[in-house]
Amino acid sequence: MLPLLVLACLTGAPGHCEVREQGAWPDQASCQRAGREHVPAPGWTREAWTCGDGAFWVAEVAPGVYVHRGQVAEPGPGNGADTANIGYVVGEEAVAVIDAGGSDAVARALLDDIRARTDLPVWYLVLTHMHPDHVMGAGVFLEAGATAIAHPAFAAGLAARYDHYHQAYARDVGPGWSAAEGPPPVSETPEAIDLGDRVLELRRHGVGHTTNDLSVFDRDTATWFLGDLAFLTHLPSIDGSVTGWQQALRAAADRPAARVVPGHGPVSAPWPDAAAPTLSYLSDLATGLRAEIAKGTALIDVVTGESDADLPGWLLSQTYHPRNITAAWRELEWE
Fold first, then answer.
1. HEC states along the chain?
2. Are the CB atoms for 226 and 263 separated by under 8 Å?
């Protein structure tokens, strides 16, 4: 196995921001730039790329496009449910936020970053899908005057789960965690939104990662917020269709973009290269399960045999791989 990359940085301490066996960066800016540009090659794994002393870091990945990198971890007391990539785009007249994070605190931190850079109003909150790490902070932006936009299937999907999400996060993250008591009201999905001489295209996708995947494409910089259609470092999680996800991602890979912002992993990555790890995992999973189904293997035997899997190139595989097996099996056994 290739060595594990671990980057650790100490603010204001030249020579203390390094990837073991991979060199060092003399200052914070260089370290952050390396974090933005690094995309793990197949076979590599690494821990979360951090540059600083725990401060809420937001990177400008393209002119006027800002992204906060969530930790690659399950939501818990140590991270305050800050486990998804979220960001915003600044136009001439207004700001659009893409995803709200897993708590009010995460959302407020992003709103504080916006206010430190611009006094423009936040007109829109675009929610890329219904999972709690991306939506639980929505109330903060609604209170700030934003209109929430999501896929047409978003509202029904989130309504069925919101109480469970709220209770689970309150339990798992613990004291200090807070979020709105009910799901955010969302408006009909337009094809595009204009922030004032800056147009963001809203692209609906078929059933893939979830039943309600929506992506945001900034025409000015060709930056594409893909939400959880693209995972890097964090093992993909299936809550829709393993075959549909492959179709959606292959279709997306045929569309040009300068960079994408994945739902988890580095703050940006080149496109379409960033599609490859997720596609490879989903394809291998489907191929392997079809073979086991054809042999008549019982699902429980497959899950048990893979429960301790440590998949090269991915973090959290022991948490998500068994779940993915179950979700994909239910779909593939009826092909």
1. CCCCECEECCCCCCCCEEECCCCEECCHHHHHHHHHHCCCCCCCCECCCCCCCCCCCEEEEECCEEEECCCCCCCCCCCCCCCCCEEEEECCCCEEEECCCCCHHHHHHHHHHHHHHCCCCEEEEECCCCCHHHHCCHHHHHHCCCEEECCCCHHHHHHCCHHHHHHHHHHHHCCCCCCCCCCCCCECCCCEEECCCCEEEEEECCCCCCCCCEEEEECCCCEEEEEEEEECCECCCCCCCHHHHHHHHHHHHCCCCCEEEEEECCCCEECCHHHHHHHHHHHHHHHHHHHHHHHCCCHHHHHHHHCCCCCCCCECHHHHHHHHHHHHHHHHCCC
2. yes
pLDDT at 91 over 90: yes
What are the tens digits of pLDDT across the range 211-258?
999 999 999 999 999 999 999 999 999 999 999 999 999 999 999 999
Q: Give the CATH number, domain containing residue 192.
A: 3.60.15.10
Q: Count up the domains in the chain and report the number.
A: 2
Maximum average pLDDT range among 5-14, 34-43, 182-191: 182-191
Residues 178 and 247 in one domain: yes
**Last residue within a domain, chosen from 27, 55, 83:** 55
Q: Considering the domain boundaries, does residue 323 fall inside one?
A: no
Question: Please, are residues 125 and 142 in contact by the beta-carbon 8 Å criterion?
Answer: yes
pLDDT above 80 for 51: no
Distance CA(61)–CA(287), nearest Å, equals 36
Q: Supply the pTM of this predicted model.
A: 0.86
CA-to-CA distance for 5 and 178, rounded, in angstroms?
34
Q: Is the pLDDT at 21 greater than 60, yes or no?
A: no
Q: Distance between CA 133 and CA 247 in Å, rounded? A: 24
